[in-house]
Amino acid sequence: MNAALSTSTSLYRFVLYFAGAESKLGRELESSYRLCAVVGYNKVINKLLFNHLAVVREYTIPSYHPRIYHSMRCEAQTMPSRKTVISASSGLWMKSLKHLVVFSSLCCLISGYSERERVHDLMSRYPLIDGHNDLALQLRILHNNQLSQIDLYNVSKVATDITRLQAGHVQAQMFAVYVLCGAQEKDAVRLTLEQIDVVRRMCTEYQDFELVTSAQELRNSEMKHKIACLISIEGGHSIDSSLPALRMFYQLGVRSMTLTHTCNTPWAESSSKIYNIYQRQNNSLTHFGKAVVEEMNRLGMIVDLSHTSWDTAWAALKHSKAPVIFSHSSSFSICSHGRNVPDWLLHDLKKKQGLIMVNLHSKFISCSDEANISRVADHFDHIKNVIGAESIGIGGDFEGAVSFPQGLEDVSKYPALIQELLQRNWTENELADVLRRNFLRVFEEVERVRDRLSLNRPSEVQISVKEVQNPCRLVLRPPDPRRPSDMSPSSRAQNGPKGLLILVIPLMLSSLLMIE
Amino acid sequence: MLSKVISAAYLALWISSCAVTSAVDQYMIRALQLMSETPLIDGHNDLPWQLRKQFNNELNKVDLYTLKTTHTNIPKIKEGRLGAQFWSAYVPCETQYKDAVRQTLEQIDVIHRMCEKYPETFMFATSSQDIIEAFNMNKTASLIGVEGGHSLDSSLGTLRTMYKLGVRYLTLTHSCNTPWADNWLVDTGSEPSQHNGLSPFGKQLIVEMNRLGMLIDLAHVTVAVMNQVLNMSKAPVIFSHSSAYSVCPNKRNVPDDVLMRVNNTGGIVMVNFYNDYVTCSSTATVSDVADHFDHIKKVAGAGIVGFGGDYDGVTRLPAGLEDVSKVPKVVAELLRRGWTDKEVKAALGDNLLRVLREAEKVTHTHTFFLLLFFGAFSQKTVTVDRQERGREMGDDPQQRTQPTWGASRTMIISMIIFNWLWNQKIYNFLKSLFLLCLLSLVYKITVSQ
Q1: 3-class secondary-structure state, position A277
Q2: CB contact under 8 A, A484 and B58
Q3: What angle do CA A34, A37, A38 make, to 5 degrees?
Q4: Which of B40, B167, B248, B395 has the lowest tally of Cβ within 10 angstroms?
Q5: Is A252 within 8 Å of B164 (Cβ atoms)?
Q6: What residue stretch is flagged as signal peptide (chain B) (predicted)?
Q7: Which residues fall within 8 angstroms of residue A227, CB to CB, at 6 or more apart?
Q8: Alpha-carbon gap, residue A412 to A410, rounded angstroms
């Protein structure tokens, strides 16, 4: 037995020395050991075995008893000691002055500590669900989707990685599988499939991530202390005007779609006018666009209206049977950028019990390249005044933009924002709504609408050829799309009597002649 | 008098005809009996392509119970005792470098919708287990095969996501070269060879397909690709709709040496019923089709033969096999030629089930090592845990970290190192070397306890 213990300790030290305590290997060892102390060796071994299987076949890791994790949480929250000893000094004035200085600084420190404590305590009980993150895009640009070359615990040149997500108390993140607008009419579908594949691989290969596709799974992943990954498509150009492609994306785990990015699609308009394609008057959400929204309602995919023009957003709001969201847009009244949402649209959103998740990009916060947390909080305050805190969320847009406010540079800085809101007298209830409960409510309502529409057949609406002509799109259709099925039987029916008549008439004529 | 003679003649004729038909009926009865015990698994049917061509994938405008313009509809499937079918998600070669991916997704979607619309007939399946389950429920298991590497647009991400959508085989090419594989027209001389078989990316694709558990279909590829894949693939391969080259020398068929290699690797060749590939002419009979089965059995054994009719993908079919309801005639013909029950069952479905299971196993081989190896030792830790758990939680923490935990700790460390090393893509021989060392180390420890 002693031999076993000494072997294990020497192996442990060997690994830590060569791999380094900060490397993935060392960290995995540490976390496994910490876990052993709580759940036992057998469970850890099983977990390791299952993880190996998960890499290959994407099994779900069995869940642990929540009681164990509550005890682990208490361990993680070690409180810093507050009491310091005030030393005695010479003169009374000096003494009292010193007392005053020390006392006031202590007060500030304590209130600072207690504020920060309060924020961390609140965010531990209601960890954040963030509406938009473009990490998948950065993985493509910087590393060509080669996950084996990087360590997602510490990624350089980006604002998101697992360590910082955990520090920022982010429990669920919607990862956008965005592909450039330039791929529209080219290979947008294939590129989107590759981005979905990289998010799926990322979320199954790392134990701290868990891919979720329903509200219940989101809740469960919180109990298991994992970061839930949701997949969202950013831009209708990814579906190439095809409802079957939309359905297949849903089957791959996509749960939300932004109707446009910065380019118009043949069926919806964008707020940005960079690209001069698919421009039309008074038809911002076409008949096919409405069919897309209906099919998203039927499937249970959240309709996202960020990046769309106000007309398209209004039309989609009217048409959708389920609540919609703006996954990363801010308030137009505070910063008049076309990407932001005006107050009248906010009122319509409220009527449909939707959600606006505030974008943190400086250009949308202060309409300039610089911003600060106070300005961000102004957006929150304004939207709360207009439609109330039950329609607000946070959609950071990290990795999807370059400049962020001072103090909110990466995903670990969310607590600073919550602290500012606390100082502006937001109640803990309102903040709990903003952090997570509003999104869960919207997601669950979208699922309820899906259940109500479960008897509907999948939609077979197809976009008309003249709306979507481009050289990369082959039309493999029967010649006349207006009468597809009643062509052949009716034509055969007509040919029958015709042939017979042609046969009969000469016979009759010849018989007539013969009789004569 | 005359009437008596005539009636006697008619009686004699009738009796003799009864005798003849009852002889044939006997084989048919046996065939139907065998088909009720083992599912007929057909490797290729292009009904989804017909749905697209004729109806724009608008299933609301079609009733599969009364559809008359295709070889396949539900009553014919029932009559033909079809136990499982690989539906082909095919898009034409013209879509390569254009919108092949989106069109393939639409074909995969129509197969899913067809299964959802007729749940009493079809059950969507993705594994050998699912096929058996569907057969027990008297439904036709529906699997998906993508016909043509051009549907992937040269992307491993697309391959993986299509696997997630239920695709279980990929025909490497249709009748056009992909950027990484040559198609059968190169063998006929009508197209130039671009890669002499598979390009390096094509070889990576084969490795990934093995890892995922997706079957590699070699119908429509050149002989060079067939040989290269048979060299490389760790899992058995399939030919979803190809017949025997020796019987009909069409380049779509499989030469004898490849047949023998398929037997060595445990694969399957599913015989195509298209006249041009059965008799190399525009007419054929049931007997000609059975000749292919016999030849494959003679050259490589009944363990590699199967049915891959290519219904709704071709225009000329043998007399007597015009649609999917007539397939039992082939089975009866095989029985008439002296095939044993076991051989016929192998051809019907057992061979394909074996191939599917092998492919599913290949994804698990390296984890099997782990399980086998560590599973034996986890028993020890289980008993140790139970002893520990028996105590109260408020025990002296020193007592909990007893020397009995040593073996488990070693195991955990070694598993973590193993896992990490595995993901670092070290060469195969190093992997096996490490495994061996680990095995001996842990064995030594446990023996010394």
Answers
A1: coil
A2: yes
A3: 95
A4: B395
A5: yes
A6: 1-23
A7: A162, A165, A166, A170, A171, A172, A173, A208, A209, A210, A221
A8: 6
Put simply, the chain A residues between 179 and 198 with a CB less than 8 A from any chain B CB are 187, 189-190, 193-198
Phi, psi (5° rounding) for residue A402?
A: -100, -40
Structure token pair of residue B237? 């391969």
- What is the C-alpha separation between A31 and A23, in angstroms, rounded? 12
Pairing status of strand B140-147 against strand B167-171:
parallel
Say how far apart CA B393 and CA B63 lie, in whole Å. 66
**pLDDT digit string, tens, across residues A174-192:** 999 999 999 999 999 999 9
Please, how many CA atoms are within 13 Å of residue A373, restricted to the half-sphere of its CB?
17
How many other C-beta atoms lie within 10 A of the C-beta of residue B92?
A: 18
Q: What is the pTM of this model?
A: 0.78
Helices and strands of chain A, counted as H and E runs: 19, 9
* Greatest Cα-to-Cα distance within chain A, rounded to the nearest angstrom: 152
CB contact under 8 A, A473 and B98: yes
- A225 is a catalytic site residue: no
Distance from CA of A90 to the nearest CA of B (A): 49
Q: Are β-strands A254-258 and A302-304 bridged in parallel, bridged antiparallel, or unpaired?
A: parallel
Rg (CA), chain A: 30
Q: Is B174 a catalytic residue?
A: yes
Question: What is the distance between the alpha carbons of residues A232 and B70, in angstroms, rounded to a whole number?
Answer: 39
Q: Which of A154-158, A418-422, B384-388 has the lowest mean pLDDT?
A: B384-388
Q: Identify which of B106, B32, B7, B4 has the alpha carbon closest to the alpha carbon of residue B348.
A: B32
b or e along A229-267 (b: 16 or more beta carbons within 10 Å of the residue's beta carbon)?
A: bbbbbbbbbbbbbbbbbbbbbbbbbbbbbbbbbbbbbbb
Distance CA(B345)–CA(B350), nearest Å, equals: 6
Residue B173's nearest CA partner among B208, B239, B217 is B217
What gap in Å lies between CA A116 and CA B273, rounded to an integer?
Answer: 75
Tokens, residue A513: 């002649």
Residue B350: active-site member = no
Looking at B42, B44, B294, B312, which residue is catalytic? B44
The three-state secondary structure class of A154 is coil
CB of B111 less than 8 A from some CB of A? no
Q: Retrieve residue A337's tokens.
A: 């950028």
Are residues A291 and A320 in contact, defined by beta-carbon separation less than 8 angstroms?
no
Chain B closest CA to A244's CA: distance in Å?
A: 5
**DSSP character string of B303-321:** GGEEE---BTT-S---BT-
Q: Hey, what amino acid is at A368?
A: S
pLDDT reading at B299 higher than 90: yes
On whether any CB of chain B is under 8 Å from the CB of A20, the answer is no
Of B249, B53, B55, B215, which Cα lies nearest the Cα of B143? Answer: B215
Identity of residue B202 = G
B415–A485 C-beta distance less than 8 A: no
Contact A283, A320 (CB under 8 A): no
Q: Which of B316, B303, B425, B415 is nearest to B367 (CA)?
A: B415
Residue of A nearest to B424 (CA): A148
B82: three-class secondary structure by DSSP: strand
Q: Please say if B63 is a catalytic residue.
A: no
Separation CA A359–CA A357 (nearest Å): 6
Q: Are B267 and B247 in contact (CB under 8 A)?
A: no
Question: Higher model confidence: residue B2 or residue B169?
Answer: B169
ipTM over 0.85: no
Question: Is the minimum CB–CB distance between A42 and chain B shorter than 8 Å?
Answer: yes
Contact status, residue A340 vs residue A395, Cβ threshold 8 Å: no
- In which residue are the tokens 């976390």 written? A31
Residue-wise DSSP of B160-203: HHHHHTTEEEEES-SSS-BTTB-BTHHHHTSS--SSSSB-HHHH
Higher pLDDT, B411 or B211: B211
